[in-house]
Amino acid sequence: MYKTISVHPDTYQQLHAIAAKLNKPKAQVVNELVQEYAQKMTAAQEKELQKYNDFMAKLIKKVRLPKGTKVDTSDIDRDFEYLADTDYQP
Amino acid sequence: MYLLDTNILASEILKKYEQDQKTLLYRHFLNSISLEKRIVSDFILGEFETFMLRVVPKRYKMAETEKNDLIAVTHAHLAKLIELCTMENTTNSIVTQALSIYQKYAHIHYINFTDSLFLSCAQANGYTILSQDQRLTARAKELKIKFWQPES
Q1: Is the pLDDT of residue A89 over 70?
Q2: Does the beta-carbon distance from B58 to A87 stay under 8 Å?
Q3: Which of A17, A31, B138, B140 is the residue whose CA sits 20 to 30 A from B120?
């Protein structure tokens, strides 16, 4: 799937110059730049994910359902049927 | 990039009470996805909030104090998702395409409008769907929308 984006004319000219210098299509240059950026962000992302997982572990501990409850989230539409019409009212 | 369904978000919170093999595989896969690659749409956040605050307490007959704890946990989870995941807004074209999907399945293999929006959002952006709902992934398959599921 291809998407169009708008960039500042100066950025486009720089992209054109880089692509010409490297003798590569502009799209390929953009792809490679994005990949490089993504790689640089990986370490930070891993750290952030670990922080998120720690945060979630604390939250999950606070959830208390009645003893013996087993949850099945594979068909939550079925669970919505437990609501009476009035449950949607404030 | 993975578009997360409501059941994936709910399952994350209700982890202690949902430990079947299939759910564990979904959870394991979710844990391998960086937060930036987790896409959460505005309407899914709405459905998630209603499910956690209105449906779960009723469905599982929760006591008032347990319900209040769940409300606090859901609020904190919502805020974290919005802060750290990639948000996706519903555009006019996504809504229009969702209506086509909804009408297509109105009489055979019914799916609700939220699910139609979900499929339309994934289709418009080329996202891979992450959902435990087998009805939804069956429709995704028909519409040639990518989805992840554990190998059987």
Answers
A1: no
A2: yes
A3: A31
